[in-house]
Amino acid sequence: MIWRAVFKRFLIFSDWILSSLFSRESLRVAPPPKAVLFANLGHLGDCVISTAVISRFHSIYPDAKLGVLCSESGRLVFSKLEYISDIHVVDHWSLNRGKGPIWVKILNYIRQSFFVRRAILEKKYDIGIDLRSFFGNAHIILWISKIGYILGFRVFPSFVLSANFFDDTKDTMPEAEVHLELLRFAGLLPAFDKEAIRYDLGLSRHDNNNSEILLAGRYVVFHPISGHPSKNWDMQKWCDLVDYFIDRSINVVFTGTEADRNLILKYIEMREGVFVYAGIGDWNKFLATIMDATLVVTVDTVASHIASALNVPVVVIFSGGTSPKRWGPLGDKNMVVTKEQRQMSRDNYKRLCFIDDVVEISVSEVIRAISRFID
Which residues contact 15 (CB under 8 A, 6 or more apart)? Predict the structure, then answer.
């Protein structure tokens, strides 16, 4: 939407003005952690990425009490981690994908913020760490909750409310690595092996109880729809990919939300070997379906990070508006299909809104990536 693009430009301009007015102090070394609140108000994929640094932190400080401040959807991710003592929920108005006018979302955000503030005060966290490196962060909530040491990225309003911010190197390293660098610079983590970075979903293959939806033989998971429409690939091309797998006697399972289900059924011909699980089952069934898959094919969504966490091969179709290096899955069992990100024009609102290069990706390009994992 145009208003989002204009608002983003406003934030960038405001960030430049405010950062010039406020001094840029170095990070102070954090105190010894006793009770730590990690915050990420992003979507499901953002929260899965956050588990890499939180699990690493727990391995270094097993006796520290850990809490998480996240969105309602993020609760699904963190509720499975036994070392998380408390989960506090706030839906940031700018990231809320629910229905309703923006002013209702803003009022709900304010109400939730002051409600959760009381719970955070009771827990007496000595360190608050905001893991979101873009607008829509939790820094204001951490500040009004009177946490003694607040750590975050150099993004509004962190550099106004706290001197402890880290200026990350935009799009040059994976987001999980950026989180680890944040804590390393604050003296909370030692140097780390980049190859050893892993997400933690709180389950392993022997935990899988997929008896209700387990399919005979091999199957691939298609997760074709993102919460951001500009990331979505043409549904007709997904239909062509179905033919590719059915011809090889490999079943195809579509996953997604209930709203996704209606769109999938509109385009996909139901036939032997094609299953639509979108909108059916809960988070656990979603994880179980991916865990037993031969391959996951998805656009830039949480499904790519879940596949990475479960060591399942994944092919990700990326739009030109996001950086695969920053937001792609971890590990070596993945292939990213994308077009070069083009220079955006200030006069072209479509480019400004990232409605671009994903439509140019062909079925043959995706199949070439798939062939690495499918004989």
Answer: 155, 156
Distances 55 to 64, 82, 311 between C-alpha atoms, Å: 12, 10, 17
Residues of the chain with CATH 3.40.50.2000: 2-196, 205-370
Distance CA 28, CA 39 (A): 19
Question: Is it the case that residue 57 has pLDDT exceeding 80?
Answer: yes
**The CATH number of 205-370 is which of 3.40.50.2000, 2.115.10.20, 2.120.10.30, 3.40.50.970?**
3.40.50.2000
pLDDT tens digits, one per residue of 194-249: 888 999 998 765 555 554 455 667 899 999 998 888 888 999 999 999 999 999 99
CB atoms closer than 10 angstroms to residue 169: 11
Q: Is 161 exposed, middle or buried (0-12, 13-18, 19+ CB in 10 A)?
A: middle
First to last CA, the chain: 41
Distance CA 358, CA 322 (A): 10
**In the beta sheet, which residues pair with residue 297?**
222, 315
Angle (nearest 5°) at CA 330 between 328 and 334 = 75
Q: Map residue 71 onto helix, strand or coil.
A: coil
Cβ pair 176, 197 in contact under 8 A? yes
Q: Tell me: pLDDT of 134 over 90.
A: no
Architecture of domain 2-196: 3-Layer(aba) Sandwich (3.40)
DSSP label of 296: E
- More confident site: 26 or 268: 268
Q: Are 254 and 275 in contact (CB under 8 A)?
A: yes
CA distances from 6 to 71, 107, 242 (A): 25, 22, 38
pTM over 0.90: no
Question: How far apart (Å, rounded) are the C-alpha atoms in residues 320 and 356?
Answer: 6
User: In one letter, which amino acid is 293?
Assistant: A
**Which residues on neighbouring strands pair with residue 301, listed in sequence order?**
none
Mean pLDDT of 155-168: 61
